Amino acid sequence: MSRSVAVVGGGVIGTAIAWQAARRGWRVRLHDPHFASGASWVAGGMLAPLSEGWPGEQDVLALGVASLDRWSDFGGTLESETGLELFTSSSSLTVALDSADAEDLRTIAEWVGEQGREMRVLNRAEVRELEPSLGRAVRLGLLAESERAVDNRLLVEALRRTAVTAGVEFADGPVHDLGALDADQVVLAAGTSSPKLWPGLPVRPVKGEILRLRTRPGATPPPGRTIRGTVHGRPSYLVPRADGIVVGATQYEAADTQVTVAGIRDLVADAEALMPAIGEYELHEATAGLRPATPDNLPLIGRLSEKVIVATGHGRNGILLTPVTADAVVALLEGSDLEDTRAADPGRFAGS
Ligand code: GLY
After folding, report:
1. Which residue minimizes the CA distance to atom 4 of ligand 1?
2. Which of 166, 167, 188, 251 is most buried, by the most CB atoms less than 10 A from its CB?
3. Where's the FAD dependent oxidoreductase domain (predicted)?
4. DSSP 165
């Protein structure tokens, strides 16, 4: 008899775990009343642990890099099994619009270099040569050549298809009690809903609004890379897609998913400061999602009990951290653990 696992949560984290566990011979049932409708659907799809690095956050960087290193194989397998083209950019470029931002980029480059990873500082002319559509106010750039981006919605579809092929059963009834699930093991991967099923779990919603823009005939082409920058103190990014650009993202301590006028105003103004031609695009969609955040910006990946494993709290980095999380949970299911995710063990918080 094969062993059984119930995975609660059908975002990219839960579906990747379900897929990988089924490939290892587990009987898997994936529970979600609204498959992939949360943060995975809204996401930008950047894989950018170096560009988001900051001195003091060694564990966050190490975990992100461990997952980025897995992405080529992980994404390549999904692409070859489904025929979908997931990767939409091959590198990321963070730009500075003022001298304080330029200083921050040099700090990041130096610190990431000390952690053994290379980023290249580019002057204004080098930035403009790489990305001519960027604004004239750009004065410095930081290039992370290994930081790709993926189309999150194609990723959701690829994971769904490979999970089905691997034998994962999908259940759309709501789960109110983990103890009632008929399985040998349970994986809780329900994002911001996770604390409802395991009270005390330190996960809170951080709202983000995001825009999906489509190119129009004659419009300036999208940048070739993911473009990131800070405008008026707000982080802004442009992630290329086959048909346009994803512009992100606002960040508030809030639990609603309404798109606000102020959110759209800020996103458009900040994107325009990075790429003045953005106004030529069609505003196709504005969405809001809830990032499942933890107090220390590391996710929760580990055992909560002999039967329950948690994999949530990925904050801004759910898409990036999908491959390493799936590997870690499969290792836990099979009685071992993964060194790469030890810092994310939920035991670091009393009450988990
Ligand atoms: N992954 C970027 C964000 O959450 O805005």
Report:
1. 316
2. 188
3. 5-331
4. H
